[in-house]
């Protein structure tokens, strides 16, 4: 019987000699060498170097916490030697995993889900070790192929947690300054330390909010504006901190989403504000005007377009609605080269509606050889009624 573990190398050589003539000295002799290679069989189970291992880990931390050592008398780097570890008890939450170190054959026990000191300060794992290859018949794994790992969890000062997170609330954009938006709720996971919590503003991009440091009530310090560039998709986002009284203190962050409901607080705007036309134009349709509103429906279109009252004995232009958002300005006659201001009002459909009174600057230009000359225009066109009023005023002053 050749024992693999007692040989320096897994090889056995035999020199065989053969003689003819019955082995007489006058006979001839021949020799041959027989080389026998010994294959290792898994006839030794792995055994832990001790029955109990100790490990300490801080709550909230992941990674390797202890290396479990074993011995195996089979040939290293073979399936009869390589160890396979299994956690067979004490891991119902799957917080632990164990893997084999391929160089040392040790079992690397890791925390893969952070542990919570407040739930359990101690864990006991039962671990078994086997080989990749099965044991030969009549060889079995014994008590030394299992070991216990005692794990102690150290308490860490954890930051307060907001409930829920993110927090959501819906408010009108015009609520008065000082209105209560929400009262936040944060709790400290360190229930055994009996700490207090104070609150503060972390990120408030528009500077609209404040928070009571003691009770967590959030109020407004300015008027909320849905049309602000700090509002995305009708939602304003701010961040708040909850800080405990630990040493050192720990901090938790909470996110607040405020959905802003629209009110009619923006007048419609008119575009363009400048138009040009030739003094001898045959087509007296001057310009198509459009209106836009920063508010949401129903506080926007359909818009109502109107001309303010025209001064003078003659009406020079009119405005015609094309659709809910556009209208057309038409001249009623050719005008002399000059600059004219056409007063226009545009009103939205909000309740109550808002009106924007604005002016369209119309430049009447001379057009020759397909070139429009708007330079050196005459003075702003003034109606005869205004001229007479001015002359009358000067006359009165001179008489006085």
UniProtKB/TrEMBL annotation:
Ranges of residues in domain Cadherin: 2-48, 49-162, 163-270, 269-380
Predominant subcellular localization, coarse grouping: membrane
Keywords: Calcium, Cell adhesion, Cell membrane, Cleavage on pair of basic residues, Glycoprotein, Membrane, Metal-binding, Repeat, Signal
CDD domains noted in UniProt: Cadherin_repeat
GO biological process, one term: cell-cell adhesion mediated by cadherin
PROSITE patterns (alphabetical): CADHERIN_1 (PS00232), CADHERIN_2 (PS50268)
Record keyword Methyltransferase present: no
Protein name: CAD13 protein
Organism: Podilymbus podiceps (Pied-billed grebe)
Lineage, top ranks: Eukaryota, Metazoa, Chordata, Craniata, Vertebrata
């Amino acid at each position: 019987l050749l024992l693999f573990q007692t040989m320096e190398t897994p090889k056995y050589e035999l020199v065989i000699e053969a003689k003819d003539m019955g082995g007489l000295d006058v006979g001839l002799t021949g020799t041959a060498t027989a080389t026998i290679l010994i294959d290792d069989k898994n006839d030794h189970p792995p055994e832990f170097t001790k029955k109990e291992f100790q490990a300490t880990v801080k709550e909230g931390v992941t990674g390797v916490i202890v290396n479990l050592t074993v011995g195996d008398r089979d040939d290293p780097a073979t399936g009869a030697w390589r160890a396979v570890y299994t956690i067979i008890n004490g891991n119902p939450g799957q917080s632990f995993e164990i893997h084999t170190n391929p160089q040392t054959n040790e079992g690397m026990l890791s925390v893969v889900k952070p542990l919570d000191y407040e739930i359990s300060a101690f864990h006991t794992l039962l671990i078994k070790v086997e080989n990749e290859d099965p044991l030969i018949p009549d060889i079995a794994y014994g008590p030394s192929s299992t070991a216990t790992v005692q794990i102690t969890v150290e308490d860490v000062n954890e930051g307060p947690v907001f409930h829920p997170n993110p927090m959501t609330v819906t408010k009108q954009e015009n609520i008065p300054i000082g209105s209560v938006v929400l009262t936040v709720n944060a709790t400290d996971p360190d229930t055994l330390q009996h700490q207090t919590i104070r609150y503060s503003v972390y990120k408030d991009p528009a500077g609209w909010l404040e928070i009571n440091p003691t009770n967590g009530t959030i109020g407004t310090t300015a008027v909320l504006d849905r049309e602000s560039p700090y509002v995305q998709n009708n939602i304003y986002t701010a961040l708040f901190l909850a800080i405990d009284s630990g040493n050192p203190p720990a901090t938790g962050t909470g996110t607040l989403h405020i959905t802003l409901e629209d009110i009619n607080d923006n007048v419609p705007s008119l575009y363009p504000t400048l138009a040009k036309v030739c003094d001898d134009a045959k087509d007296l349709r001057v310009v198509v005007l459009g209106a836009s509103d920063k508010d949401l429906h129903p506080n926007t279109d359909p818009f109502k377009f109107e001309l303010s009252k025209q001064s003078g004995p003659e009406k020079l232009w009119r405005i015609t609605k094309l659709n809910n958002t556009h209208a057309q300005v038409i001249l009623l006659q050719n005008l002399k080269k000059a600059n004219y201001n056409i007063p226009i009002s545009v009103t939205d459909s909000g309740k109550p509606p808002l009106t924007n009174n604005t002016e369209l600057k119309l430049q009447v230009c001379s057009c020759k050889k397909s070139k429009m000359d708007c330079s050196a225009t005459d003075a702003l066109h003034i109606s005869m009624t205004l001229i007479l009023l001015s002359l009358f005023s000067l006359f009165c002053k001179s008489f006085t």
